[in-house]
Amino acid sequence: MPRVVRFHQHGGPEVLRIETVDMTPPERGEVQIRVKALGLNRAEALLRRGTYIETATFPSGLGLEAAGIVEAVGDGMAGFAPGDAVSIVPPVSTVRRPAYGELVTFPAEFVVKHPPGLGFEAAAAVWMQYLTAYGALVDIAGLARGEVVVITAASSSVGLAAIQIANRIGAVPIALTRTSAKRHALLDAGAADVIASDEEDIRSRLAEIAGVNGVRVVFDAVGGPAFEPLTAAMSPGGILIEYGGLSPEPTPFPLFNVLSKSLTLRGYLVHEIVRDPARLAKAKAFILDGLSDGTLMPIIAKTFPFEEIVEAHRFLESNEQFGKIVVTI
């Protein structure tokens, strides 16, 4: 029987257990995958702790990303065959379709044949970060060549994906990070400039970088007090897309900046893209083209073996990583 990761109560990484389960054959329209690597996401830590937008049903699986080899396909399936190298687009429900396991089954619309030169570790790190960043910057904001875009939590996998996508478009990515410790790594990763928010004045630095045109697009995972200086630096008609909430402090509503500049503050979940076949198809094409031509390439922070899933989650919550955490099987 295949091994999976489950938890029977909310809590820290120590509640995760490796267990064996029975696995039924794939049904019509489904693809069963022998997993080689998993990509870890903060959403999985939130689910484990009981603070995610989805509620766990115990014993609960978890996991949104995986890559591996097709083991079997359901009746009537076309386009996939045993032996194909594939990766998984994050499903809307990590509880109903958990990815942490040696053998997983997903509907065919969530399964992608990635470029042949992409290894399993990199493939497991593709879809959540690039779909999230693409959906915000390209699909919603319409980021254009030459425009300045501010990316907070820039050393996260999504932040780094946003930097790469901005560069692919020809935009100017400005990375926000808490301290200057990751400045050089962010510049090496493609950031045009870096602002250390705990050490520098965000508004004055952005005014210096963006000039009179200001910042039209802000891609934020943090919230909190930074809303005030971020919106103060934005140009009239600008859009701030919020996809996280990492700050433990309250997020003020910057009323004067919003009114005086006619700003849009927009909440965003990657589910918007995943649920819409047409938008998802465009996103896949953009990302696969970028993977093929080398303009997009996941940055792996650290890999762990499957047996060290608890340690991997501890590292996930340490905020020390630069890029994606991957677990290999």
From TrEMBL:
Keyword Oxidoreductase set for record: yes
A UniProt-annotated Pfam family: ADH_zinc_N
Keyword field: NADP, Oxidoreductase
One MF term in the entry's GO annotations: oxidoreductase activity, acting on NAD(P)H
InterPro entries referenced in this protein's UniProt entry, alphabetically: ADH-like_C, ADH-like_N, ER, GroES-like_sf, NAD(P)-bd_dom_sf
Recorded superkingdom: Bacteria
Domain (Enoyl reductase (ER)): residue spans on this chain: 11-327
PANTHER family per record: QUINONE OXIDOREDUCTASE PIG3-RELATED, ZINC-CONTAINING ALCOHOL DEHYDROGENASE
Protein name: Zinc-dependent alcohol dehydrogenase family protein
